Amino acid sequence: MPIALSTLAVLVTGASLGPLRGALSAALYLGLGAFGAPIFANGQSGVGFPTFGYVVGFVVAAFVAGQLARRGADRRVVSTLALGALGSLVLYACGVPWLALSLGVDLGEALALGVYPFLIGDALKVLALAALLPSAWRLVGRIEASTDGGGR
């Protein structure tokens, strides 16, 4: 399986666009690829490849990240770490069963193929998310504060 920043992008998208728009943007990506656009990893398309369950998970994870962000979980480092961890867990929950069924392997083998090799990379992505989102919100607050004082 390829390593990409798509999981980080999905979580950022969900948190920044909100649950509905985040999930719809991920669903658009899923739909385009499912109907033949070669936009998935390694130029794949369709639904018959082993990692398609993770793409389905993008939609659910974007929604979950959006819901948590709506409640302010993207404003502080610790809560953003939880947002990222939960989003990653959602991706695994959608991807691993599809992987197991697609490859005809048991759950243990699917975890060995589709989770364990990616835990360190996903942890680094969650750390990046926890640095990015709260910092971005602080920057937005500063910009808003500097523009509100001038003309109102």
TrEMBL record:
- Tell me yes or no: is Cell membrane among this UniProt entry's keywords: yes
Instruction: State a single Pfam family of this protein.
Output: BioY
Question: Might you report a single GO cellular component term?
Answer: plasma membrane
Q: Does the keyword Acyltransferase apply?
A: no
- GO MF annotations for this entry? biotin transmembrane transporter activity
Q: Where in the cell is it found?
A: Cell membrane
Family matches, as InterPro entries: BioY
- Topology in membrane: Multi-pass membrane protein
Keywords attached to this Swiss-Prot or TrEMBL record, sorted alphabetically, are: Cell membrane, Membrane, Transmembrane, Transmembrane helix, Transport
Q: Where are the transmembrane segments?
A: 49-69, 81-101, 113-133
Q: Which family does it belong to?
A: Belongs to the BioY family.
Provide the protein name. Answer: Biotin transporter
Which source organism does the UniProt entry give? Answer: Arenivirga flava
